[in-house]
Fold this protein.
Amino acid sequence: MEQFYVIKGGIPLVGEVEIGGAKNAALAILAAAIMADETVTIENLPNVRDINVLLDAMREIGVKVDRLDAHTVKINGSMIQELCVEYEFIKKIRASYYLLGALLGKYNHAEVALPGGCDIGSRPIDLHLKGFRALGADVKIQYGLIVAHAERLAGTHIYLDKVSVGATINIMMAASMAEGKTIIENAAKEPHVVDVANFLNRMGANIRGAGTDVIRIVGVRKLHATEYSIIPDQIEAGTFMFAAAATKGDVTVKNVIPKHLEATSAKLIEIGCEVEEFDDAVRVVSSKPMRHTQVTTLAYPGFPTDMQPQMSVLLGIAQGTSTVTESIFENRFRYVDELTRMGASIKVESSIAIINGISNYMGARVSAPDLRAGAALVIAGLAADGVTVVDNIYYIERGYEDFEKKLSELGAQIEKVSSEKEIQKFTLKVG
């Protein structure tokens, strides 16, 4: 059954919101957990669609998955019978490729369906395959599967032609059980790369340098049980920070690592918001007119591509002309047509969006083209005059847990509905 968000905008968000575990870290950590034959406990797991699809796929190949509660899971990979992951839903999530690195590292063989996920542009996996080949695996694509096999994996020196979070993590997993020493140069430095390395080390791996552009790994023969809590989700945190800014609100975002949010906080300050940092929280106050600025997405610690649509929504109602340059994914501006329905004045030329600020958005019916753009359209709806309906919210639910509930607790008038009748009922109720 299709569901929608229906939003009455124009209400400042005020209060506190608790941020969950990082989806992008959790997906890789769940895959890495199957590399041990002992039981691994993972806490602070976000209860979102992508996580649940991956857990189901892991069950399909024989992994024992015990969900203790919505945010805690026990994983035991000692009973894996199948090294081919063809679970029909796995094609829908990009992070399915992490099972390649995990299974190849543990068993020297893996077959995983080619990954899907959001259509935000070309995200080739050639760097992943290059890394596996350098470690000694024979890799080919056949019948829609990536098939990797090695007689033995041996440590080596790998230079990534381009910074890639997925390739860095995948190679790191496979290399952690290869023979000898592996060096990954031009490695990604994102917080979830560090989180996965810390998790593997807690299971007995020997990984040094995560968070820098050179990672050194000494392979070990086996990994063991551990308990681990996933880092907070910096993109969920940033989304609520921007929602506060767009609605002229005052929101304290709790359970975060402020260091991970520096690029986001810096842009908010630049456009005229107040940002106050605490040990594990960030408060955003938006009381003045927002100013224009220039933004370019970059690998961490630069401005995250996953916050680009949300940033564009803010700049759409800021004074003056702003530019947003997308340097990572070429299809990341597909939400612009939807935002234009709400009155935005945005022109896209190649990888640059030129945004002329307007005084306010107007409520409209829009469709989420992907996960982050969907969240951005919800922010636009929260800031708009009138009622906004957002379709295709299954994209948003891939990465945000209880999104409408958390927004409601901050004062937003938002409901998840499943029929045109319910939309009409909400519209009459809010006047």
